[in-house]
Specification:
elongated, 4 helices, alpha+beta, 14% strand
Length: 113
Amino acid sequence: GVMIKWILAKGGLAYFEKFNAQKAKVIYDVIDASGFYTGHARPDSRSLMNLTFRCPTPELDDRFCTQAEKEGLDCLRGHRVTGGMRASLYNAMPMEGAHALAQFMREFERTNG
């Protein structure tokens, strides 16, 4: 019941639908504006919870994850088969987390692109 109470206190499902779409947009805007990052999913099939993308090379994917971890951005390594990165933006992830990742992505592209 603790989770349901928390969801209701925040504004219910309608709140989280809007909030999660806003968080995902922060990251997808970076991917879409970039010639560096490529999303795994078609725009009409994108997840609001697990955003998957990659850099131009697997080596840059590894560097991205290593440098992100140093900046406190954890658990971004993608699927063991498809590779790339996966940013999980579940309900409890604050908007600040999405902005921190977006800022890191822009800086990483600037220095590695």
